[in-house]
Amino acid sequence: KLQFLYLIAMDNHREVHDAIADAVISSTPSQSGTDEDVFSGNAESQANPLLVGSSAEAADPQADSSVGVDSSTLPSTCAPSRRCGKKYLARGGCCFLMVFAVLAVVYLGALHLGDPVDPVAHCVVDRANRTAIHIAVAYSERIARGEAGGKQISKNHAMLHRHRPLVLFDSAEEYYPLAAEDFIANSSLMHGSDVLIAYPNLTSEDIARASVEFHTETFRKPEDHGYVIKPIRSSYGGSKNLRDVPIYGDARLICVGLKVNSTESPCGVMYTTEEAKKHGLPVAPARFYEMRYAVLYAYNGDLPVFLGGLASGHHAGDVEHITVRVDAATDRVMEVYYGAHQHREGAWYPAQSPKADYAVLENKSLVHIGSLNASWVAFETHPVVYAAVNSHASYPRCGTTARHGWGRYLLPHDHNDGRGDVWFPHTVVPVQGG
To answer: Tens digit of pLDDT for each residue in 6-27?
Structure first.
């Protein structure tokens, strides 16, 4: 687009230059009828006063020789005519295009250094972080057992807990998840730039009431003139005790091609085979669970653009999610969806994809982290989510991941080095229809 606009501008400049040249030449009639005679030393008395001084000075042989232009001083390769201006204008255009091309190559080269399309070869979970993962899993399972305490929970809730994700952050991450209660307690309810309920007076009851009275749409930008929940700056970093932050989830049993709903294990949603294909759902097995997990952040940080000289992308309020599908008969993970950038760049990965990591537990202890194979699928499996630094986009492997489409060349890549904090939530808060 920039090259296209530049060429249009160049055409306009050429037209202006030609018009000026025509006006200058036609303003002084030539005795010989040629442009060259007007500018030559043999026709000084007819020369253009704009170029060689006034006509009186040109006609006076005693006039100061410094007045005027000696044609001998002009470059021999460029005749003093319209062609001269065009030549230098063309040279300037070529130089501009060359500089633009060099800057573009440098920018894209720096932005895509190594161009790591596949992050698998660029990152591994090192021994130190494996130790942190073991500790996080042990703590989470111990607290979870204490919270259960013999309480009866629904099948859907049990499935949410059994396949909750293990989240690994980048070592440079500054903005972590937090509980919804903490988010609300550190926020104000606003309409555009008007504060309706100021911090610290906002409560969850206010949000519930506002959602009905004001039709609140959370996490919209104030300039949209909608109702927003805006957190205070001091809460941007998230929870100071990450391991006790809950994750939010919704589980439903989906049935495909069944004519009769089961009374013992009723289907949450029933599709015909044709409907399932239309919605992009698997048609086999006939019954599978779909668990959707949501992670709440108070702030989405900036991402560097143009060689790190600029930054963009920050906003208050950020929700990321993944979806896990599990065979209802075998309890084996079928596939996982990793959401990224408002679902525009999210993708499904089969359970045994070599590009996806899982944490495998046996008797509540971590026994494997990495890709799945036939020997691991029978165990309790949790997808590993690598949260990209600042953007919090979800990916199945650590490393640097290129953006999709034209964003690959215009936007900064997402990155996670796999060496940051570990979060294995021990509490899954069911959110019906969430």
So the answer is: 333 334 444 434 443 444 334 4
